[in-house]
Write a structure and sequence with these properties.
This protein is α+β, with helices and mostly antiparallel strands. It is built from five helices and four strands. α3 packs antiparallel against α4.
C-alpha cells in the first residue's frame, strides 16, 4: 500500500470531524495541509527559530496532517542553525563564591550577552 492510499484510509477514519470551507479542508478547527505543501509550511513555521516546543504548539493549533510531530522533529533536526545554537543553550552551573564577612568587601556583577 502506497503512502497516499494509507493517508486516505487514515483520513476516512476522521470523516466525522472533517469539513470543507471555502475550498479548504479542516480537521476540527485545523487546516489539513496537502502533502505537496507540507515542506513549505514547515519552512514558514521554522523561519523564526523558536525551538521545537513553540513551533510544535503553533503547528498543532493551526495545521493537521499525518505524523506532524515526527516530520517537524526531522525538519528541525536537519537545520544547521538550530544544531549550531542548540549546544549553546545548555545551562552552565552557577559559580559558588564565599560570602564576605564585611559588607561591600566583595562586589559582583553579572554580564549578559
Amino acid at each position: 500500500m502506497g503512502n497516499e492510499e494509507y493517508e486516505i484510509k487514515y483520513y476516512i477514519n476522521l470523516k466525522n470531524d472533517i469539513e470543507v470551507s471555502e475550498g479548504f479542508i479542516y480537521y476540527k478547527t485545523r487546516l489539513i495541509v496537502p502533502n505537496i505543501l507540507r515542506k513549505d509550511v514547515l519552512k514558514l513555521l521554522h523561519e523564526t527559530y523558536l525551538g521545537f516546543n513553540k513551533i510544535y504548539n503553533i503547528a498543532s493549533e493551526l495545521f493537521y496532517w499525518l505524523a506532524t510531530t515526527s516530520k517537524l522533529k526531522i525538519f528541525i533536526g536537519q537545520c544547521k542553525t538550530c544544531s549550531k545554537y542548540l549546544k549553546t543553550q545548555i545551562k552552565k552551573p552557577l559559580i559558588n563564591h564565599s560570602i564576605p564577612e564585611i559588607l561591600f568587601n566583595k562586589v559582583g556583577i553579572d554580564i549578559v550577552e
